[in-house]
């Protein structure tokens, strides 16, 4: 009987792969642009490069799209006002007026009406509600600038698989980060240096900025057996007129749109879907777009990305662009060649057929 690979494309089990623990990167490479780069051309063998080689794959007229979100020190350690018991907050998303959607550990110390004190009472939060997924709505009382307070008393939230404390917090920010709001870094961008970006622009490649604030949902593996049963988390984004002009200019002159990271990719494809075949419009809101094989890309031609967790929606996204079997084969090669995986790991450049 003929085998239909598209059936396998929809099974979570098709996106699992064996990964030796020692290949999970717990700290960044010595220099940003000295990470390794696995290049996956559409019509040739895999190429093993260094990230500083990326410009040789770019052409004048291309548009590189980067996500300028900034990770906030979203982990707060406080005490419950009545019992003095320790409580940990992870800020997920601002809701306006000093209110935040928050994960709290332990949850039993964060019931509606409970108050938590941070930094000896310079910052306080009262729990307003518990959401269906267990997240809390917390209202903060503070004097002055909330972000400045966070910078002083908060800690950088690292992904759950990174066990070591970060010696150099700026290494978990891209060099172009400027819009605060993420609970995790858009990690494909961590490999760029300012000098490299300037050299890329000097080649005639335009750089477009957009913003997507990465939520912790990005690390959640798909638990359902069939991927279409998975419910995607929402993440806030914005795409402005200047970025759209750069993207459209590239498209109109035969250049390629190269997304840096799955976050940039999801914003671009969300905007294209919203436009419904008409011209792109500046937009902001939330996206829960789930990209998996069978998805028809409308804007993104190529992708710079890191190596993703087994069974993750991010791995499904790259499989949609490059083909599941080819991606899983590339991952097997990356394991054999001892590439470093996940947030602080090495990078891939996907150049699908005809790009």
In words, what does this structure look like?
This protein is 20% helix and 27% strand. By secondary structure, it is an alpha/beta fold. It has 2 domains: 5-71 and 168-351, QueA-like (3-Layer(aba) Sandwich); 75-153, Thrombin, subunit H (Beta Barrel), CATH 2.40.10.240. The protein has a 9-stranded mixed beta sheet with strand order 2-1-17-16-14-3-12-13-15. Strands 5-6-7-10-9-8 form a 6-stranded antiparallel barrel. Strands 4-11 form a two-stranded parallel sheet. The radius of gyration is 21 Å and the shape is globular.
Describe the structure in brief.
The chain has helices at residues 5-9, 146-153, 194-202, 241-252, 261-275, 313-322, 324-336; strands at 36-41, 47-50, 63-67, 69-71, 75-80, 86-96, 99-105, 115-118, 123-130, 136-142, 179-182, 206-212, 235-239, 257-260, 283-287, 302-306, 347-351. The protein is of the alpha/beta class and 355 residues long.
Strand order of the largest sheet: 2-1-17-16-14-3-12-13-15
Counted beta strands: 17
Radius of gyration (CA) equals: 21 Å
CATH architecture of the largest domain: 3-Layer(aba) Sandwich
Spell out the helices and strands N to C. HEEEEEEEEEEHEHEEHEHEEHHE
Which segments are poorly predicted (pLDDT under 50) over 5 or more consecutive residues? none
What are the defining features of this structure?
355 residues; alpha/beta; QueA-like; Thrombin, subunit H; six-stranded antiparallel barrel; 20% helix
